Amino acid sequence: MMLTLCRNALLSVMAITICSCLPLIAQDNSTPTPTANPDVAAAQELLLESPSKDDSMTFEEVLAQYNENKVTITRLFSSSPIGFPKRQIEHMAKIDRLKEQNRQLKNRLDEAALLSFQQSANPSPRVCQAVFNIISKKIDISRGGYDFDPEKALEVAKLMLTKMDQVNELSSTIRMEDVAYQGFLAANAIENYPDANAMLTRIEDQKIALQPTIRSEFNDSVKKWNREQKIRNQEKTSNDLPRVTLETSEGEIVVELFENEAPKTVGNFIHLVENKFYDQMNFFLVLPGRIAQTGCKNDRGTGDPGYKIPCETSGDKMRHHFSGTLSMANSGSDTGGSQFFISYQRNKNFDGKKTVFGRVISGMDAVQQLNRVTGTGSLTMNPSKQGNYSKILTATVTRKRDHEYLPTKITEKKPQ
After folding, report:
1. Which 8-state DSSP code applies to residue 4?
2. Per-residue pLDDT for the chain (416 aa), expressed as one digit of tens each?
3. CB environment 6-29: b (16+ within 10 A), e (fewer)
4. Separation of first and last alpha carbons in the chain
5. I need a surface site. Which of 212, 301, 329, 374 has the fewest CB within 10 A?
6. Which residue in 186, 183, 187 sits closest to 202, CA to CA?
7. How far apart are CA 161 and CA 202, in angstroms?
8. What are the backbone dihedrals phi and psi of residue 359, each rounded to the nearest 5 degrees, phi first?
9. Calpha distance 344→286 (Å, rounded)
């Protein structure tokens, strides 16, 4: 039975991006008009062989060079020499070098736009749009979280709002409420609830209507977060919860297990760790901004330890999904076994459906570095890409209470 969380994760995306009530600014992906100037074409040929300009290039200069390169790449693709293998190899090498240069230029565009935005008293509309797009990009998880970095997004949103307060209007196409809402999503993603509230309040103070669920769901998350902080403080005082160290290919991750609220799940997890079940186990599904999942020997989301365990998802003691939460993957009630995931941010749609049984207390930076894997078959279908998986090298119990830890099995496969 497929245990992956892709479908549920997509539901989380919908919940997180409930900003449909506010228009968002689309990125400008227009393609530059090719020039017929032979001097430009000749200069581009020289550019293929010469190093990039220094880092002092302005945003407009970086953008111009990037766009000119795109034109040249298109021209080179349409003029590939046919029937001359050696010339074809040289031709494709030029294209590859130009693509690599554009990849580097694209990375520099954001930096150049931010620098121009900060230094200019009244930034141009194009610079403003580029900076706004940085925020959108850094909180976008719809494309698998390629650039997911909500801390950076919040920083840039604050910068834009400060400039807006100084000059009243940056661009007719960028409104305060759009920037503030993006800032709200960014702050919410890192559980910086004071800043998230400030962003929402800024919008509400302008008498701009928000969907009622945005404020109510935010208040609910804050309530649950405050409860979580109270429990964590009590746990810090008692200082006796079991801990497991995951040595991964991206660094050490230390997790603390919620035995008080999920004793059956913790018993199963420690039992599997002590029997080396997770050693050399791949993170077979990693979606930045959503989840990182492991615990399946076949890397397709169908593996288990040979039995199922009960869910612990009801009652007043149930914990909730926040950044760093460990939770059991399942395909329905009482279908968990060995697969678990780490949340990158608040996943309210999983509350009451997936058993929360621990949290990362050290090494969240390593979790952020796990190699992105978009689906359960994307790597296993191509053995040459097996090395792209991040993995648990070893899992070790470093602390536990003085009793035996065993799984509570509700179904078990018969030996063949």
Report:
1. -
2. 444 444 444 344 334 333 333 333 333 333 333 334 443 343 334 333 433 445 567 888 888 998 999 999 999 888 888 878 888 888 899 999 999 998 888 888 888 999 999 988 888 888 999 999 999 999 988 766 678 899 999 999 999 999 998 887 676 778 999 999 999 999 999 999 999 999 999 999 989 988 989 999 999 999 999 999 999 999 999 999 999 999 999 999 999 999 999 999 999 999 999 999 999 999 999 988 899 999 999 988 889 999 999 999 988 899 999 999 999 999 999 999 999 999 999 999 999 999 999 999 999 999 999 988 876 544 444 444 445 899 999 999 999 999 999 999 997 765 54
3. bebbeebbeebeebeebeebeeee
4. 19
5. 212
6. 183
7. 10
8. -155, 155
9. 10
Classify 241-412 by CATH class: mainly beta
Alpha-carbon distance of 263 to 73, in angstroms, equals 59
Chain centre to alpha carbon of residue 359: 18
Neighbours of 403 (CB within 10 A): 8
Residue with tokens 């076949």: 298
Is the backbone of residue 295 left (phi > 0), alpha (psi -120 to 50) or beta? left
Nearest partner of 43 among 21, 27, 28, 65, judged by Cα: 65
CA distances from 77 to 31, 91, 177, 206 (A): 16, 9, 43, 51
How many whole angstroms separate alpha carbon 5 and alpha carbon 11? 10
Q: How many residues does the structure list for the chain?
A: 416
**Cα separation values, 309 from 326, 396, 414, Å:** 16, 21, 16
Q: Which residue matches tokens 């103070």? A: 205
Q: Cβ distance 210 to 201 under 8 Å?
A: no
What SS3 class is residue 321?
Answer: coil
Q: Which residues pair with 395 in a beta bridge?
A: 246
Of the candidates 196, 228, 227, the residue with the CA atom closest to the CA atom of residue 214: 196
CA distance 249 to 247: 7
The domain segmentation of the chain, as residue ranges, is 22-210, 241-412
Look up residue 230 and give its DSSP letter.
H
Which 8-state DSSP code applies to residue 298? T
pTM of the complete model? 0.76
In angstroms, rounded to a whole number, what is the distance separating the alpha carbons of residues 201 and 309? 44
281 and 323 Cβ atoms separated by less than 8 Å? no
